[in-house]
Amino acid sequence: MDLLAHLKAYVATADEAGFSRAADRLGIAQPLLSRRIKTLEEHFGGLLFDRSRRQITITELGALLLPYARDVLDRAQRLRQVAGSAGRARVRVVGVPAHCAPAALARAIRAGAERAITLGMRELQPAERVSGLADGSLSYALVRVAPERGAFRVPLGLASAPVPEGGESVPAYGGARRAVHLEDLRPRRGRKAELTAAPSVLILPEDQVPSHEDRLERAAARAGLPPGRFRPAGSAATALAETLAGRTLLLCAEPFARQHGAVWAPLSDRSLHRGYDVSGAQGRNGSADVPDWLVPLLASAVGAAARGPGGPGSGTGPEDVPARLAARG
Hints:
The protein is of the alpha/beta class. The protein contains twelve helices and 15 strands. The strands form four sheets. The protein has a six-stranded mixed beta sheet with strand order 4-3-5-12-6-15. Strands 9-8-10-7-11 form a five-stranded mixed beta sheet, with helices on both faces. Strands 1-2 form a two-stranded antiparallel sheet. A hairpin with a 6-residue loop joins strand 1 and strand 2. Helix 1 packs across helix 3. The longest helix is centred in the N-terminal third of the chain and has 29 residues. It is elongated, with a radius of gyration of 32 Å. The C terminus is likely disordered.
């Protein structure tokens, strides 16, 4: 039984107080309308209309059910309207890293609305953003790439706990804002025993990308660091807790560290920074074009800086020799 069609026959008959007028209103034959009313009465287990008189009247059961029938038809109408509006609207799902700047994402959402485009932001891990573009669940995404190849670069550095006044904790490498070399992480000599062993460095899920981890491992080996100095963090919250407690260091971007009150210093090796491209979904005709207005807004959400004009291998300043050498393996 087509419940909506039968309810329409029921409501129209109640409104018109007659089968003929109700059939004319719906544009169907009267016998068809009568059959629908009879089928509905069998379904509900009682008469909806009293046919014993010259002009039909609604029964007590019919009067009781009528408001509910109208409500079902009204909801069905609204459902069709919403579905039609959604089909006509341009909705785009965007995959972004965790801990993006909310204000920057808001600017992107507003910019989309000005162009009649609804942007839905989804925080996803790097691999999930790539697979989302491949299977079409994402329209656009910030994709991790090698920093010397990406359109944008996010400087990474080491976050450490603030040293309490008159106290000691894990050495803070960012106090003077100087760049940190991995050699600085080797155990320090001539200090108290508890500070002799250098702390481990936690890696956030955003940086647990095979290509990045391989570079980090090779760079650590060149710097003479023992294996296991860099270890993956289960979550950003636990990594921050250990860092702020003074137990470890954290590899992260500056906005993330400053937001939580940690001390931060940049890594000198730009090949260990994050690289990003803004990519579109992969369809039959290749990747979808990303709107020009969206690219800088998404880049600003992760605190990325545009790559310098020197082409691949260039940073925002002089030639990035470590990045170039790392690209060669």
